[in-house]
């Protein structure tokens, strides 16, 4: 039975204003066990990315374009995981899945904005590697601090401007089908499908957003690395080739971690009709959990300057 506070009567009929996030459907009895990797992943992501930001901002030798972009990525990782994992843990531990429509839309807005921002940051990190390898003598004159600041603002504005219209597309809908959302967080189409209205505009605009941001970013990143590899394999020295490839290694790993689960999740949602719902939800959470947790570890292991700073911090704490 739907409680009175779950609905609002208006001229168009009954519209839910409060929803209930179910968590992972079919695995409700295992929520406590599932919460353990969620909590561990979130803790590592929070501590690792915070440490990364602290090291980059406090060490003048790391105030280079590559590390400043990495600092942006770490900040986005913190926002993305903080916007989703605590909500999931509240569902797993306290069955606190109730969420208002406005809060649901706000959560969706932040998640999607941050995801598109991360994609933009990965794109400019590829551009950074392209300039560093193909035009090393002009690297510092091209990627100035002023340009990096403008790039950061552009990334934020692009995310905001593409996602903001979806708020109005959702607000115009009447949610009368159901108020139970089988997920740990709110998604655009996941919420829109409970509307009684025609949601074709939502579907097509959502597709436009993905194609004009994430898919376009992937294509440009691919072209960038084709050009990078072409330049690397034309280097006369084997040591120079090895060094150039090593500088790209961390970024390539993060690209695979970020886009890999997202692409796989999208494919299973479109074509995996026989895959159980809880697999879809778990995959969606993998996209949120894994990259923020592993990004600082990958850069910490593969970047000498960061390794040295981490070792220095821990040695100072032990004294």
TrEMBL record:
<keyword id="KW-0675">Receptor</keyword>
<keyword id="KW-0807">Transducer</keyword>
<keyword id="KW-1003">Cell membrane</keyword>
<comment type="function">
    <text>Odorant receptor.</text>
</comment>
<keyword id="KW-0812">Transmembrane</keyword>
<feature type="transmembrane region" description="Helical">
    <location>
        <begin position="105"/>
        <end position="127"/>
    </location>
</feature>
<dbReference type="InterPro" id="IPR000725">
    <property type="entry name" value="Olfact_rcpt"/>
</dbReference>
<dbReference type="InterPro" id="IPR017452">
    <property type="entry name" value="GPCR_Rhodpsn_7TM"/>
</dbReference>
<feature type="domain" description="G-protein coupled receptors family 1 profile">
    <location>
        <begin position="48"/>
        <end position="299"/>
    </location>
</feature>
<feature type="transmembrane region" description="Helical">
    <location>
        <begin position="32"/>
        <end position="55"/>
    </location>
</feature>
<keyword id="KW-0552">Olfaction</keyword>
<keyword id="KW-0472">Membrane</keyword>
<keyword id="KW-1133">Transmembrane helix</keyword>
<feature type="transmembrane region" description="Helical">
    <location>
        <begin position="244"/>
        <end position="267"/>
    </location>
</feature>
<feature type="transmembrane region" description="Helical">
    <location>
        <begin position="147"/>
        <end position="170"/>
    </location>
</feature>
<dbReference type="GO" id="GO:0005886">
    <property type="term" value="C:plasma membrane"/>
</dbReference>
<keyword id="KW-0297">G-protein coupled receptor</keyword>
<dbReference type="InterPro" id="IPR050402">
    <property type="entry name" value="OR51/52/56-like"/>
</dbReference>
<feature type="transmembrane region" description="Helical">
    <location>
        <begin position="279"/>
        <end position="299"/>
    </location>
</feature>
<dbReference type="Pfam" id="PF13853">
    <property type="entry name" value="7tm_4"/>
</dbReference>
<keyword id="KW-0716">Sensory transduction</keyword>
<dbReference type="InterPro" id="IPR000276">
    <property type="entry name" value="GPCR_Rhodpsn"/>
</dbReference>
<dbReference type="GO" id="GO:0004984">
    <property type="term" value="F:olfactory receptor activity"/>
</dbReference>
<feature type="transmembrane region" description="Helical">
    <location>
        <begin position="67"/>
        <end position="93"/>
    </location>
</feature>
<dbReference type="GO" id="GO:0004930">
    <property type="term" value="F:G protein-coupled receptor activity"/>
</dbReference>
<feature type="transmembrane region" description="Helical">
    <location>
        <begin position="203"/>
        <end position="232"/>
    </location>
</feature>
<protein>
    <recommendedName>
        <fullName>Olfactory receptor</fullName>
    </recommendedName>
</protein>
<comment type="similarity">
    <text>Belongs to the G-protein coupled receptor 1 family.</text>
</comment>
């Amino acid at each position: 039975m739907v409680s009175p506070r779950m609905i609002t009567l208006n001229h168009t009929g009954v519209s839910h204003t409060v929803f209930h996030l179910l968590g992972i459907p079919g695995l409700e009895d295992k929520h406590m066990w599932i919460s353990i990797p969620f909590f561990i992943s979130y803790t590592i992501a929070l501590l690792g990315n915070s440490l990364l930001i602290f090291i980059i901002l406090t060490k003048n030798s790391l105030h280079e374009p590559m590390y400043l972009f990495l600092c942006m990525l770490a900040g986005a990782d913190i926002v993305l995981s903080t916007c989703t994992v605590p909500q999931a843990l509240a569902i797993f531990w306290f069955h606190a899945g109730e969420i208002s429509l406005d809060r649901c839309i706000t959560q969706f807005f932040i998640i999607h904005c941050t995801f598109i921002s991360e994609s933009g940051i990965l794109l400019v990190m590829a551009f950074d590697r392209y300039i560093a390898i193909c035009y090393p003598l002009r690297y510092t004159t091209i990627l100035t601090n002023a340009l990096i600041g403008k790039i950061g603002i552009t990334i934020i504005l692009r995310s905001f401007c593409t996602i903001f219209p979806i708020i109005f597309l959702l607000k115009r809908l009447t949610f009368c089908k159901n108020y139970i959302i089988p997920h740990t967080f709110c998604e655009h189409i996941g919420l829109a499908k409970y509307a009684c209205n025609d949601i074709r505009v939502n579907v097509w605009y959502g597709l436009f957003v993905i194609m004009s941001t994430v898919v376009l970013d992937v294509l440009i990143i691919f072209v960038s690395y084709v050009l990078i590899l072409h330049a690397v394999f034309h280097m006369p020295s084997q040591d120079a080739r090895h060094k150039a490839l090593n500088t790209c290694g961390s970024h390539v790993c993060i690209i695979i971690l970020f886009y890999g689960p997202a692409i796989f999740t999208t494919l299973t949602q479109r074509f995996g009709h026989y895959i159980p719902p809880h697999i879809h939800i778990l995959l969606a959470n993998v996209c949120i959990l894994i990259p923020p947790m592993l990004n600082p570890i990958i850069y910490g292991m593969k970047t000498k300057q960061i390794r040295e700073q981490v070792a220095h911090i821990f040695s100072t704490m032990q004294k």
